[in-house]
Specification:
Blueprint (H helix, E strand, L loop, with lengths): L7 H14 L49 H4 L21 E4 H5 L17 E3 L9 E4 L2 E2 L6 E5 L2 E2 L22 E8 L13 E7 L7 E7 L3 E12 L2 E12 L9 E13 L4 E14 L4 E2 H5 L14 E16 L3 E18 L14 E22 L2 E24 L2 E27 L2 E18 L7 E16 L5 E13 L2 H5 L17 E13 L5 E12 L4 E3 L4 E3 L4 E15 L2 E14 L4 H12 L4 H4 L14 E10 L3 E11 L15 E11 L5 E7 L7 E9 L5 H7 L8 H6 L1 E8 L4 E9 L1
Parallel strand pairs: 5-8
Antiparallel strand pairs: 1-7, 2-3, 3-4, 5-6, 7-8, 9-10, 9-35, 10-11, 11-12, 12-13, 13-15, 14-34, 15-16, 16-17, 17-18, 18-19, 19-20, 20-21, 21-22, 22-23, 23-24, 24-27, 25-26, 27-28, 28-29, 29-30, 30-31, 31-32, 32-35, 33-34
Length: about 775
C-alpha cells in the first residue's frame, strides 16, 4: 500500500513548520484537581456487571473538594477498560460521563439511538436499518457524522472521503450491552480531538468481562427478532470476552426492510485502565431493503400510504471487520498510552431521492460503493510536574491515520447498472501532533492551554476523467484554552475557546470537471475547513443528588463546504454562525429513582449573501416557473435542517431486583428546510416506555413500548425539488404532449417537503438469563 507523494518525514516537517508559525503549547487537564462526574448509574440491566478497574492511587495528586475521584471510574458498570489510560477529567460544564447501565436502561429502536443519552443529541434514521444514522446537535444537522467525532475503544467511526457523505459514521454494529462507559465532549477546546470534533466528540468504551454468561432473546412488532449472548472466561492473567448477536427486522413499511444482521466481538484484556492492555476483534455484516423519504404531496393526494415507497428496490449491504489494541502504563514521571487499529469495511447503497427528476424514463436511483482499508495509530505521554510550586501536568501526543479507498457512483434501475458517474481510487493520510499543559494556580483556579497541528495529504486517481485526478495537501494549527474556577459550595465555572476543523472529501479538493456534466468546469473545495468556538458554563451539585449544568456557546465555521456523495461533485455553502445554550439536569433522590431533563436551544444562520442561489431563482422567475417550482428556492440565510430546539426528559425506577421501569420523552423542534424558510419541518415529540421484572439470579423479562402514544410524526424531513410521473410538471416536461417548459424548470422539479415517518406504536419483549 503506497501513500503517493508523501512520506512520514515530509509530514513531520510540515507539522514542525506549523509549530513554528504558531508557537503556543497546550496543557492537559489535571485529573487530580477535577470534579468528579455525576454518578449516573441506571438500574435496568444489573445482571450485566462490568468489573471495576480503578486507576492506581497517586498520593502526589490532591483530591478535589467536591469528590475524590470520577464517579464513572468507581461505578462497576462504568469503569474504564484495560489499556484505556487514566480517566479524563471534566474541563467544561458540557462534558458528560455516562455509564453503560444508563445507556442500557433506555428503550431504543436501533443501536445508534443509545447515543441520545448524550444531552442535546438527537439520532434519527431515514433509510433502512443498515445505513448510518442522522445526527443533530448544537444547531447542526450533522448528516451522517460530519462535525461529530465518534470513537469506539479509540477507533474512529467516522469515514472520511466516503461514498455517501463526509464523516459517515455507522454504529449499527455496536452492541449496547457491551458498552462500559461513554465520554462526551463538546466544542473545539481539546487538543487531543481532531477531525470532525468541532461540535463534539463521543468516546465509547467497551467492557472487559462479565461475571456470568448472558443469553437473551427479543421479539416484537413488525418482525423484530434479536438473539444476543455474551460470556467471559479467565485466560492466563486476563479475561477473554465473547459477544455476538443475530437479528432481523421488517419494519412497518409496505415493502419490508427484510434487514438481516450478524455481529460478533472477541476481546482479550489484562490489567487495569492505567496499567494494562486489550486486543479486540470485531466482525459485522448486514443487508436490507429500505423505504426512503417520500414527498408529502404523494401522501396528501392519496397516491401513497404513509409507509409506502416510490422505489421498492432501494437498500444496501455492508460489512465491517476490525482489529484493534490499546495499552497504557504509569511510572514515576506520569503516564502513557497508545493504540493501533486496522478496519476493513465495505458498503453498497442504492437510493432514489428525486424519483424521476434526473432521468424521466429510468428513474433516479443511484448506487454508491465504498470499499476501504483504514489504518491508524496514536500515542500520548503525560508528565507530572510543578510550575512555581504549583501542580502541573503536560501531555504530548501524536495521531496518525491512513485510508486506502475505492469509490464509485453509478446510475441504476432496480439495482441494475445503467451508467457510471465517477469511479475513483483515493489514498488519504494525516498526522496530528498536539500538546496540552494544565496548571493549578490556586485551589480554586486551573488553566489548560493547548495547541494542535494537523497535516493532510491525499492522492485521487479518477478512472473515468483524468481532469479530476490530482493531489492535495493542507495543514491547520489550532490553539485551545480552558479555565476552571472553583469549586465554591460545590459549584464550578468553566470557560473555553479554541479553533477546530473538519476535513472535506478528498475528491472535492481535486475535482475540476463536473462528473454529472463533463466539460463543465467547477471550483474545487478546500481539504480542511476551520471552525472557531467559545463557551462559558457553570456546574453545581449544591443540592444532594442533583447535578445541574448550564453552557452558553458559539460556533463559527468558515464554510460548510461538503462533497455531495449523492451527486458526485462539490457543494460549497457560505460561512455559518451559531450560538445557543444547553441546560442539563440529573437528579437521583433515592437509590431507585433516576430523573434527567435536558434542553438545548440554538440560533443558526448563514453569513453573507448567496449570489448563486439568487441568480438561479431569478432565472426561474424569468423562465415563467410556477409557484410549486419557485417556493423554497428564494435566497435566504436559514440553514436547512438546523434544529433550534432539542429537549428530552426521563425517569427510571427500580432496584437491583424486583420491578423496574422507564419512561422517556424526546423532542425535536421545527426546523427550516430551505434557505428562505418557506418549508419547515413539523416538531416531533415521542415517548418510549419500559416495564419489567428481574430476580436475584439475574433472570429478567421486560416489555419495551416504542412510540407509546402512536404519534404520527416524522423521523426526518427535507425540502428540495423532485418529480413524480403523476406531477403536472412531469407531463408538461416529458408527457405525450410536452408544452415546452424550459429545461431549467424541469430540472428543478416540484419543491416540496420530503419526509420519512417514525415507526408507529411498537412492542418488544425481552427474556434474558445469566448462567
Amino acid at each position: 500500500m503506497k501513500w503517493r507523494g508523501a512520506s512520514v518525514a515530509v509530514l513531520m516537517a510540515a507539522l514542525a513548520q506549523q509549530a513554528v508559525a504558531h508557537p503556543e503549547r497546550a496543557p492537559a487537564e489535571l485529573p487530580t484537581v477535577d470534579v468528579d462526574a455525576p454518578k449516573r448509574t441506571a438500574r435496568a440491566k444489573p445482571q450485566v456487571r462490568r468489573e471495576a478497574q480503578r486507576p492506581k492511587p497517586d498520593a502526589a495528586r490532591p483530591a478535589t473538594s467536591i469528590a475524590p475521584a470520577p464517579a464513572a471510574a468507581m461505578a462497576p458498570s462504568g469503569a474504564p477498560n484495560a489499556g484505556s489510560g487514566p480517566a479524563r477529567p471534566q474541563g467544561m460544564a458540557s462534558e458528560t460521563i455516562i455509564t453503560g447501565d444508563e445507556i442500557n436502561a433506555r428503550p431504543a429502536t436501533r443501536p445508534g439511538e443509545v447515543l441520545e443519552a448524550v444531552p442535546g443529541l438527537i439520532v434519527t434514521q431515514h433509510s433502512g436499518e443498515g445505513k448510518a444514522n442522522q445526527y443533530f446537535l448544537r444547531g447542526y444537522n450533522l448528516d451522517h457524522g460530519t462535525d461529530l467525532a465518534l470513537f469506539v475503544d479509540d477507533v474512529p467511526v467516522n469515514m472520511r472521503t466516503h461514498a455517501h457523505g463526509q464523516g459517515y459514521a455507522d454504529l449499527n454494529w455496536l452492541m449496547p450491552e457491551t458498552i462500559g462507559r461513554v465520554d462526551v465532549r463538546k466544542g473545539p477546546y481539546f487538543a487531543d480531538e481532531g477531525d470532525f470534533a468541532s461540535v463534539g466528540s463521543v468516546h465509547i468504551g467497551l467492557i472487559d468481562s462479565v461475571p456470568k454468561a448472558i443469553a437473551q432473546v427479543t421479539a416484537g412488532s413488525f418482525g423484530y427478532r434479536r438473539f444476543f449472548g455474551m460470556d467471559s472466561v479467565h485466560v492466563g492473567d486476563g479475561h477473554l470476552l465473547i459477544a455476538g448477536e443475530a437479528g432481523r427486522y421488517d419494519g412497518p413499511w409496505t415493502t419490508p426492510d427484510d434487514a438481516k444482521k450478524l455481529n460478533s466481538l472477541l476481546r482479550y484484556s489484562q490489567g487495569t485502565a492505567t496499567d494494562g492492555f486489550s486486543i479486540t476483534g470485531m466482525a459485522y455484516a448486514n443487508r436490507w431493503t429500505s423505504t426512503d423519504q417520500v414527498p408529502e404531496r404523494a401522501i396528501t393526494s392519496g397516491l401513497l400510504g404513509r409507509y409506502d415507497s416510490i422505489d421498492p428496490t432501494d437498500g444496501g449491504k455492508t460489512n465491517r471487520f476490525a482489529l484493534s489494541g490499546r495499552i497504557a502504563g504509569t511510572d514515576d514521571a506520569g503516564a502513557w498510552k497508545a493504540n493501533a487499529y486496522v478496519v476493513k469495511s465495505q458498503l453498497d447503497l442504492y437510493n432514489n431521492f428525486t424519483y424521476a427528476l434526473r432521468d424521466p424514463v429510468n428513474g433516479d436511483q443511484f448506487h454508491q460503493h465504498d470499499d476501504r482499508l483504514m489504518l491508524g495509530a496514536n500515542a500520548s505521554r503525560t508528565i507530572n510536574g510543578s510550575f512555581a510550586g504549583r501542580p502541573m501536568e503536560t501531555t504530548f501526543g501524536i495521531q496518525t491515520r491512513y485510508d486506502d479507498i475505492a469509490l464509485a457512483l453509478s446510475y441504476t434501475k432496480q439495482r441494475s447498472y445503467l451508467s457510471s458517474v465517477r469511479n475513483d481510487k483515493v489514498g488519504e493520510g494525516s498526522v496530528g501532533l498536539y500538546a496540552e499543559n494544565t496548571v493549578r494556580w490556586a485551589d480554586w483556579l486551573r488553566t489548560t492551554v493547548g495547541y494542535r497541528g494537523d497535516y493532510y495529504q491525499t492522492h485521487v486517481y479518477s478512472l473515468y476523467n483524468g481532469n479530476n485526478t490530482g493531489d492535495a495537501a493542507a495543514s491547520l494549527g489550532s490553539p485551545k484554552f480552558r479555565m476552571v474556577i472553583g469549586p465554591f459550595d460545590k459549584t464550578e465555572f468553566f470557560v473555553g475557546a479554541g479553533y477546530g476543523m473538519h476535513s472535506n472529501d478528498a475528491r472535492g479538493a481535486t475535482t475540476t470537471d463536473d462528473p454529472t456534466a463533463p466539460g463543465t468546469r467547477i471550483d474545487s473545495s478546500p481539504l480542511l475547513v476551520r471552525t472557531k468556538g467559545a463557551e462559558v458554563g457553570v456546574r453545581t451539585r449544591i443540592i444532594p443528588g442533583f447535578d445541574s449544568s448550564l453552557s452558553v456557546f458559539m460556533l463559527n465555521q468558515d464554510s460548510e463546504i461538503l462533497f455531495s456523495g449523492d451527486a458526485g461533485n462539490t457543494e460549497a455553502s457560505r460561512p455559518s454562525r451559531r450560538y445557543g445554550f444547553e441546560f442539563t439536569n440529573h437528579y437521583r433522590p433515592r437509590s431507585w429513582i433516576d430523573i434527567d431533563a435536558d434542553l438545548a436551544m440554538t440560533h443558526a444562520r448563514f453569513v453573507g449573501d448567496n449570489a448563486d442561489q439568487a441568480d438561479a431563482y431569478n432565472q426561474l422567475v424569468a423562465a415563467g416557473a410556477s409557484a410549486e417550482v419557485l417556493r423554497g428556492n428564494a435566497p435566504g440565510n436559514y440553514i436547512p435542517n438546523a434544529p433550534s430546539m432539542i429537549a428530552s426528559a426521563g425517569i427510571t425506577l427500580g432496584e437491583q431486583t424486583g420491578w423496574f421501569g422507564s419512561l422517556r420523552w424526546r423532542y425535536l423542534g421545527s426546523t427550516p428546510l430551505t434557505e428562505d424558510n418557506y418549508f419547515r419541518s413539523t416538531a416531533t415529540s415521542v415517548f418510549n416506555g419500559r416495564i419489567g421484572f428481574r430476580d436475584a439470579n439475574g433472570w429478567r423479562i421486560q416489555l419495551d413500548v416504542l412510540n407509546l402514544f402512536n404519534t404520527k410524526a416524522n423521523q426526518i424531513s427535507y425540502g428540495y425539488g423532485s418529480l413524480l410521473t403523476t406531477d403536472q410538471l412531469y407531463q408538461a416536461c416529458y408527457g405525450s404532449a410536452p408544452t415546452g417548459v424550459p429545461a431549467q424548470v424541469c430540472q428543478t422539479g416540484v419543491m416540496d417537503r420530503v419526509l420519512h415517518p417514525i415507526e408507529p406504536l411498537t412492542f418488544r419483549v425481552t427474556v434474558a438469563g445469566t448462567f
